Structure formats: structure tokens, C-alpha cells
Amino acid sequence: MRIIAIANQKGGVAKTTTCINLGASLAYHARKVLIIDMDPQAHSTLGLGFEPDEFDRTILNVLEPPRSPYRLELKEVIIPTRTPNLYLAPANIDLAGAEYRLIDKLGREDFLNSGIQRANLSFDYILIDCPPSLGILTVNALKACREVIITIQPHYFAMRGIEEFMETIGLMKENLKHDLEVYVLITIADVRTNLYREVVEEIKKYFGDHLFETVIHRNISLAEATSHGVPVMEYEPSSSGAQCYLNLAKEVIKLEEEK
Amino acid sequence: MRIIAIANQKGGVAKTTTCINLGASLAYHARKVLIIDMDPQAHSTLGLGFEPDEFDRTILNVLEPPRSPYRLELKEVIIPTRTPNLYLAPANIDLAGAEYRLIDKLGREDFLNSGIQRANLSFDYILIDCPPSLGILTVNALKACREVIITIQPHYFAMRGIEEFMETIGLMKENLKHDLEVYVLITIADVRTNLYREVVEEIKKYFGDHLFETVIHRNISLAEATSHGVPVMEYEPSSSGAQCYLNLAKEVIKLEEEK
Ligand SMILES: Nc1ncnc2c1ncn2[C@@H]1O[C@H](COP(=O)(O)OP(=O)(O)OP(=O)(O)O)[C@@H](O)[C@H]1O
Ligand SMILES: Nc1ncnc2c1ncn2[C@@H]1O[C@H](COP(=O)(O)OP(=O)(O)OP(=O)(O)O)[C@@H](O)[C@H]1O
Ligand SMILES: [Mg+2]
Ligand SMILES: [Mg+2]
Predict the structure, then answer these.
(1) Which DSSP state fits A211?
(2) How far apart are alpha carbons B48 and B35 in whole angstroms?
(3) How far out from the chain centre does Cα A156 lie?
(4) pLDDT of residue A105
């Protein structure tokens, strides 16, 4: 079972879009996939067609401390989506409270990890959608996962932010004492521009083999699909957005041989 | 003197791009403009061609409490930019410390406002670039300004985030006890898509007259200009990005008659 966090403290760099569409693409390739929505904005939950406020059981219940009356096991909050093989542990705005309530709890970075461990799940992949911050929710995701995909839009400031995020991940690896494989995915790319060529060169130099070959092109079908609450391959299977994520899934699956 | 905060807690919605290019467009229309960079990421500073880490005097010094040896007056940190009429109070990563150090200081939401008041400045416009959060830095900007422009990318989730942000602004108006004129600017717009039409209709209904007529189209020249550290009208004056921001400046200037 591969557990992959989709992270970047920067906002609007296609973390959610990647969670949903890489998840759906892996499901399309007959992998059993769970998406865990760790963002109080609940965009993965919304983008899969659900209304977050209608849930009274969400991932927050799994993060509750052991003695809390609201605590639930992960299996009690997982729901199927309209896509075969694709499941969701939803979020809603109540998750925002976790940032404050967990802050002084012993073992607070480990609640998601221990929830996943106890659950003894049978998924091939767990993808964790992170909020745009380095708070306790992202820390829980980084502790619970074995691989992290950093999504990055190839614009000028992207590299500056990444170096800082990498430092944090480095610190976490030391503190969390577990190995973490870091990958980088270029997203929302205007591949025919000079800016793209300049920035990608710099990203390649910095990340080498950790950079996915697949680049996700900017394609409005991806935004439109999310607004309709479906993965892009169900909304417009022939779009470049669908093709890009299906190719990414193939590349991710190839790595299975080494895991 | 009009003091305008450019704000939205969501990341990557063209706050910085708007600060720089609306600022340059107003300067182009013979207005004397100061941009205050309130983001520890210092993207306005970078986008105007400066290296944030080379500054030892930044807006942070203005936010220092009165007895601090590091405290400076706003006039001591303002620098000219390469664009005539356009000035900058720069930021750098040290500003990140402010979120923690100010947290328990008396009058902590008022340091920027009182810094501006004391400075007795002669600008026509002060534009304040905010970080993607609702922390003490954004609160200082909202307290210091009289108008706020919320930038919004016309994608599905944009409206959901905005309602929450508006609630917060409403609460602030009550707590801060000053009037705040709220405007909305649609940015990074793919104007020929169905998604655009659907979302804009919803934005219009919600905001009415507070929505600027000018819509900023998605245009790679805007991203390229920033990577070269210049406003877009210096990088590619005939681009749609330049045209859009020049039109926005005209619309903003028209409001001068009512101020
Ligand atoms: N390849 C793409 N082409 C066009 N639009 C895209 C693409 N990827 C994402 N988007 C759009 O860009 C916006 C931001 O994407 P998304 O919400 O996935 O980013 P995020 O990193 O999860 O943001 P947040 O930090 O707020 O969680 C969304 O409106 C999404 O539909
Ligand atoms: N109209 C536009 N067309 C194309 N690209 C744009 C446009 N406006 C902004 N961008 C690009 O989108 C990215 C995000 O813009 P920007 O940095 O201004 O957003 P922001 O809201 O200030 O982000 P943050 O929350 O990180 O401060 C940048 O790479 C910028 O160059
Ligand atoms: Mg997201
Ligand atoms: Mg910015």
C-alpha cells in the first residue's frame, strides 16, 4: 500500500486537482484508491461531487484524541465515490478547529498515521490532499505518508517557495525519523512559453530524477470538471487534462516495481 | 490619499500581480503611488526587480513596537522603483517573525495604520500587498486601508472562499470600527470558457456594483514580466495584460470623484 501526500504550502498549485485526477486515473488502471481530504476547505470532497457540510463523520473524527467521544476509526468515515475503485475520507470546515485543538495534544503529529495503521486497509494507494500551509494538518499528512508529491506551477516564484518547503521537509525527515521519498510534478504548465522553458530547466537541475517526466498542461477542462464534481476523465476523456493525468498514473504505477 | 489593500486569503489569485501592475498603471497616469509589501514571501519586492534578502530596512521595522531599537519610520524604508512615480516599502522573510512577535503586543493590529498616519505622506495611492492568510499582517493592512480589492479567479471554488472572507471582513469592520469599501476584481480569467460565464454570473449577483467592470484576462506576459522584475507595461506594453491593468487604473481613477 503506497501512501502519498500531495503537498505544497503555496496556494492554487493543483494539489486538489492532482489528488482527484491522479486518484481517478489510478482507479481507472484497476488500483483501489483512497483519497483523504486533509483541507478544511474540503476541495477534494467538493471536487468529487459531495457537499462537505452534509457530513457529520469526516477525517476530523479520526484525528480526535483517543478518549474523545467524537473519535471514529478511519473505516467509519470512508465512503465510495461515483468512480469505481475510488474512495474518499471527506473533510469539512470543522477540520479548521483541529489546527487549534490538536496543538497541545501529546503525539499530535501522529493521529493520522496511527489512524491509518490501526485501520488495516486494503487499498493500493492512499492519496492525501493537503491544505496550503505547514500547520498540524500537513504535518500529520507528511508523517502518515511514505512518498510526497510536491506540485509546482512553472512560474518564476515557484522555485523560491520550493527551496523553503524542501528545507522544512528535510527538518521533518529528521524529526519524524522516517524516510520520505520526495517527487515533484509540474502542473498548470503553459508549455509553449519562454517562461516555461526557463523555469523547467531550473527545476530539472534542482530535482533531477525526482521530477516526473509527465507535465500537466494548463487545460480548462480540469477546472470545468471540478466545477461539475467529477474527475476530468469522466467529464472530458479526450481532453489534454485527462491524457496528462492518465500518463502520470502510468508513471506512478511504473514505480511500483521498486516499492 | 487613497489607501487600498489587495487581499484574499486564497493563494495564487493575482494579489501581487495586481499590486504591481495596477500600481504601475496608476503611476503611468501621473499618480504618485506607494506599494507596501506585507508578505514575508516578498513577491511584490521581487516582482519590481529587487532582492529582498539585501534589505536590512523593510516594512517589518515599521511594525516594530514603539520602544524597539529596530523600529523605523515609514519614510526611512521607502525606496523608488525603476518606474517613475512608483515607490516601494519592501519586505523580506524576516516579516514572517512578525506573525509571532506581534501576537501579544498591545495595539498589534494598528502598527501599520499608525506608521502611515505618522508619516504624513504625499502619495495619491498606497497599495498594500497582503499574504494569503488572515493573520496579523493582513489584519494590519485591513486596519490601515479605506478600500480593499479582493482578487478572485473565476473558478468554481472561488465563490465559496469569498463568502467566508467577506464574513471576516464584516467582523473586522465591526471590531476595527472603521468604514471599509470592498471591491472585487476578476483576475486570471479565461473569458471564452463556459466555466467563466457561469462563475461570473454568480459573482455579479453577489457583488453588484462592487465588481469592477474591468476583467483581467489570463495572459502569460503578466507572469513573464514578473519573472523579469518589471511591470507588464514595461515588458510588453501591447499585451492584453498591460491593456487590462491600464483599463483598471482608469476605472479606479474614475472613483476619485467620489472619494
Ligand atoms: N492543469 C490545469 N489547467 C487549468 N486549470 C487548473 C489546472 N490545475 C488546476 N487548475 C485550476 O486551478 C485552480 C487551483 O487548483 P487546485 O484547487 O487544485 O489547487 P490547490 O493547490 O489544491 O489549491 P489550494 O492551495 O487552495 O488547496 C482550480 O480552480 C483548478 O481547477
Ligand atoms: N492575468 C494573469 N495571467 C497569467 N498569469 C497570471 C495572471 N495573474 C497572475 N498570474 C500568475 O499567477 C501566479 C500567481 O499570481 P500572484 O503571485 O500575483 O498571486 P498572489 O495572489 O499574490 O499569490 P500569493 O497568495 O502566493 O501571494 C504568478 O505566477 C503570476 O505571474
Ligand atoms: Mg486544494
Ligand atoms: Mg502575492
Answers:
(1) B
(2) 10
(3) 23
(4) 79
Q: Which ligand is nearest to the CA of B215?
A: 2
Å from A25 to nearest chain B CA? 22
Half-sphere exposure of B48 (CA within 13 A, CB side): 29
Q: How far is the CA of B236 from the centre of ligand 2 (A)?
A: 17
Q: Residues B154, B155, B160, B164: what is their CA dihedral angle, to the nearest 10 degrees?
A: -50
Q: What is the distance in angstroms between the CA of the first residue and the CA of the last residue of chain B? A: 9
DSSP-based three-state secondary structure for A232:
helix
Task: Give the residue among A240, A232, A156 at the shortest CA–CA distance from A201.
Answer: A156
Contact B12 A223 (CB under 8 A): no
Q: Does the pLDDT at position B159 exceed 80?
A: no
Nearest CA to ligand 1 atom 14: A12
Q: Residue B164 above 90 pLDDT? A: no
Which of A182, A219, A232, A217 lies closest to A20 in space, CA to CA? A232
DSSP one-letter string for chain B: -EEEEEE-SSSSSSHHHHHHHHHHHHHHTT--EEEEE--TT-HHHHHTT--GGG-SS-HHHHHS-TT-TT---GGGT-EE-SSTTEEEE---GGGHHHHHHGGGSTTTTSHHHHHHHHHT---SEEEEEPPSS-SHHHHHHHHH-SEEEEEE--STTHHHHHHHHHHHHHHHHHHHTS--EEEEEE-SB-TTSHHHHHHHHHHHHHHGGGB-S---B--HHHHHHHHTTS-HHHH-TTSHHHHHHHHHHHHHHHGGGG-
Cβ-based burial of B143 (10 A; exposed 0-12, middle 13-18, buried ≥19): buried
Dist. CA B194–CA B216, nearest whole Å: 17
As a whole number, mean pLDDT of residues A107-122 equals 93
Tell me A12's DSSP state: S
CA A39 – CA A9 distance, rounded (Å)? 12
Closest ligand 2 atom to B130 CA: 27
CB B39 within 8 A of CB B140: no
Work out the pLDDT band at B24, boundaries 50, 70, 90. very high
Of all protein residues, the one whose alpha carbon is nearest to atom 7 of ligand 2 is B188
Q: Average of pLDDT values for A70-82?
A: 97
> Is A5 strand, coil or helix?
strand
